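job 3f2a | input accepted
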Amino acid sequence: MRFFHYDKSLSRVSTPQGTLTLSKIFIPFFTEMLLLNMMGTINTLMLSQYSDHAVAAVGSATQLLGMILTFFTVIGTGASIVINHNLGAGYTEKASDAAFASIILNGFLSLVLGTILSLSARPLLGLMHLEGQVLDYAVTYFRIAVQFSFFQAVTSSISGIFRSYGKPKISVCVSLSMNCMIALLDYLIIFRPIELPLSGVSGIAIAYVCSQCFGLLMILVFLKKVPLNLNFRSKNLETLKIVKTMLKVGVPGGISSISYNLSQVVSTSIVAILGVAAISTKIYVSNIVFYVYVFGMSLGLSTSLLIGWLSGAGKYEQAYRLNLQNLKITITSNLVLSLLIYFFAEPLLGLFTSDPEIISMGRNLMKLDILVEIGRGFNHVEENSLRGAGDVVYPMVISMISCWIMSILFSYILGIHFGLGLAGCWIAFAMDEFFRGSAYLVRWRSKRWTTKTVATQN
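job 3f2a | predicted structure (458 res):
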């Protein structure tokens, strides 16, 4: 029974705005993550009615797009850490500076990258071993989505600011509105109850962009109306000096995320060697198992935010114990939910496809995924906790080593060389998750992260 003992006092942090609790952060985090993934699931479900080729194309393009969008986390992650530490230490003006710099730099970066990558869509997607109609569909989707990535980049920055200031419900409201909009547009485009000028993959891409634009407009209104005392009118070029601190803690986290997402793109290119059915199976299974680990991911991100505040305030023992407590909860939930998903594998996969080959492969993957989710639970809590405390270089090094050796190298060795196919890839994913999770836990227990606080009054 001691394993399940829960100490509520560990998840309470006093702030100038009042008491911040884990539940107040977690529930909006969980809801937002759920809604954001529902957007991807809705796209996949709608497109599966169109063709499996379209599913494979959009899924592949989305992975590449996800890798590109992680470039913005270099600024966003750094800003969140700096904001949380400075708010915890009571340095509100420095926190405001970081918020301002995050919006400006992410907006600029997304405009430049979006234009360059839109022009390079075909050669980039060609590196993923996509061919024929699948490649054409993927290029169409990626080109439209990345050209307007500005909307998502700025929305993400502002959402991060609201979360750091203890206002995560605003991000949930925006996500819910975006999901409702894209669900409606996808339905109109694919099933065509009324005639629209949009159709197919290009129509789905435009619907995605429209929802992102709508979300940005909404969150800008909230930013203007909600009193956070950001005082943006007083900011100038001098304010951007805080970027140096943001990059110091943001670049390692950004590199880690970019490396991981790039490895996922390479992983998809390895799976592409096995054929279109294998790509579609990977995408369908990935959509389903997200609902297993969304709880742990949300708890990890919530823990990271609280640990940022606690580290800024110098309450390291509370942060240490909070991490270990939430780790037990995450591992337990991932195990239970992954088992539940496995038992209902066939009807869940049947929502996406009637192809017996895909359903059979998917069910086998869900059995192996039980191990993946247990290891992933360690990563969601431990990696986010280290980053929240400002300890970002160690996780970056471990992540890069693990995802390229454990995940990619062994995906090829087991999946292609030894002929295990998708099952071999999933075994490699489990090896990656357990290696990283174990290394992060050792680091956390060493308490070296207590020396990484970045709050500064000057």
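job 3f2a | The first strand starts at residue 12 and ends at 15.
job 3f2a | closed
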